[in-house]
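[job 4471] stage=fold_predict status=RUNNING
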Amino acid sequence: MKKLLVFLGVILLAFMLFKELKRKRAPQVFTTTSGRVEMCLACHDEAPEKVHAREVVGCSPCHLGNPLRMEKDLAHAGMIKNPGDLRVVEKTCGRPECHPQMPGKVKKSLMATNRGIINVLLRYWGEIPEDAKNRPEDSVEYLLKTGKNSLALDYYRKLCGSCHLWMEKGKLPDFLAEKGGGCVACHLVKGPKEAKHPVLTRKIPLENCVRCHNRSGRIGLTYQGLYEDEGYGTPYLEGDFGAETLIDGRFVRRIPADVHYKAGLVCVDCHISEETMGDGKAYNHFEESVEITCRSCHGGKGITRKGRKIPRVKKEGGKWILEGIFTGKKHELKPPDPIKCEHTVHKRLSCQACHSPRVPQCFGCHVRYDPREKQLDKLTNRETPGAWEEFRSYMRLEEPTLGVKGDEVVIIVPG
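[job 4471] inference complete, writing structure tokens
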């Protein structure tokens, strides 16, 4: 009996060893709902959000690497942190089964090329003819590939070159690190504190837009009711500093916010994807790319000036409404006043000419260049010879100046 028990024990031990060896040699296979083998899921439990759920998409379609290996070094070979980076986006977001049309469109968008800024600077500096437009070399991508530089381009590289989609997210220091990242410049938001993975969303929050749209016309600031007012001798409350500061140190004061902001609307409630992500055409200036007008919603049945539909505008109960993307609130879109707005004398007036009681105005813009100093080149993230500094005489908040552009009377904002 004793020998039998020993024999059975040996058999049991052998069986257990065999199972352990088999388990190590043939690990559990993890697959997505589409049947894709994703061994990444054996270790990673990060969950972006429902559309890009780990059990649906997996990890490798976005982050590349080798999803068939269990060894960390082999599995992570060729992996990328940011799938939205425009340098790799065709292999990730632009995969045939995902968003194949978007990379080509986005790379031609003004947010990627900065074509208008670069072209205007080159013309102002007299480095290209006044009539030179729509040049393929007027783009961030061209500057990154060639390293081309000049006085005008150096100004762009050091003062303007952080607000474009080609910027690698996290590359620049301080608050500039949040900018760029290609697709994720807009579509990435922070998840809950306990989340290991940030969240991808189509509901682009206002703060993502204002991260860049806060200079020049300062539309992102004015929309929220912020007036830039920092120590330039502004004749506002005896010229002292503003009560609040922006992340980059600029001082601001509170002013009445835009009526749309007060209603809870954000930029993407009105602006459509073809304006922001591009429609496949290379434009030279933003006014060529922007499609929505006030009348697109108010009396225009949600149709842009290029004939495209604004997604959140629809007709309900005989009225045209806009449904807020964040709030879900339905806003009635009242048409222009048939007497005041359609009067013969007022036909040429843009809506803004009457409905913008105050606009920020910047006067006395000056630029100083010191070839002896060094400054950070935002495209290369290296300090190079030559430092630029901008100055202005003062800011003021007053009734807008009106001017004629084509056949329309519009607001002219000095800056």
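[job 4471] summary: The first strand starts at residue 188 and ends at 189.
[job 4471] exit 0
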